[in-house]
């Protein structure tokens, strides 16, 4: 079994006339939390969308658990136990929190068929999901919607969780709750790929890191090594962690 669960090799992505990714090489080690960092417009979100098949790679190869998924459709990729939380969260505002969760629970046709033990675990991670179980999701705050988006992604066991900027726009207390939740998810054995702008979030959670610029991965290594190297931080990110 490969140490890397997900590998991108020379991946290019075109969106219309625009060439966004220019040969992305990225590895996501099995059982680790990998941070994908970079300035705005570096290509991070496009990389996630290309992995999920929402945008098709025009060149290169994407493998998951040893299987080439480059040309698969998004539903086929999701069926491999890969969950994706986009930056927009994708919440169905007119449905209740319970209905949003049920939609993601492929093995259940009604709420009573959802795994009760897993739900209780999710409620321990995100108490707001339980508190607002029967409320319309559109009435939740931004932080509560983000909790619901992640909770929905893990309502069934996933081998890989991909999340785009989970702390964006959240209050510090909610960010700390997110950090705790992702730490527990990682401890449970889930492999995680996170795009993040909150550097404190990245330092506390990241095992490995890849930094993107101009549609390429320009640095990869351990999160700790990047956190300890102020010169590298300024060179790659224009800031100090």
Automatic annotation (TrEMBL):
Gene Ontology molecular functions: ATP binding; ATP hydrolysis activity; branched-chain amino acid transmembrane transporter activity
PANTHER family assigned to the protein according to its UniProt record, in alphabetical order: ABC TRANSPORTER ATP-BINDING PROTEIN, HIGH-AFFINITY BRANCHED-CHAIN AMINO ACID TRANSPORT ATP-BINDING PROTEIN LIVF
Key words of the record: Amino-acid transport, ATP-binding, Cell membrane, Membrane, Nucleotide-binding, Transport
Protein family per UniProt: Belongs to the ABC transporter superfamily.
GO biological-process terms attached to the record: L-amino acid transport
Protein name according to UniProt: ABC transporter ATP-binding protein
Organism of derivation: Rhodoferax sediminis
InterPro entries attached to this UniProt entry: AAA+_ATPase, ABC_transporter-like_ATP-bd, ABC_transporter-like_CS, BCAA_Transport_ATP-bd_LivF, P-loop_NTPase
Taxonomic lineage of the native organism: Bacteria, Pseudomonadati, Pseudomonadota, Betaproteobacteria, Burkholderiales
Domain ABC transporter: start-end pairs: 6-239
Superkingdom per UniProt: Bacteria
CDD domains associated with the record: ABC_TM1139_LivF_branched
Family annotation (Pfam families): ABC_tran (PF00005)
Coiled coil region boundaries: none
Keyword Transmembrane helix: no
Listed Gene3D superfamilies: P-loop containing nucleotide triphosphate hydrolases
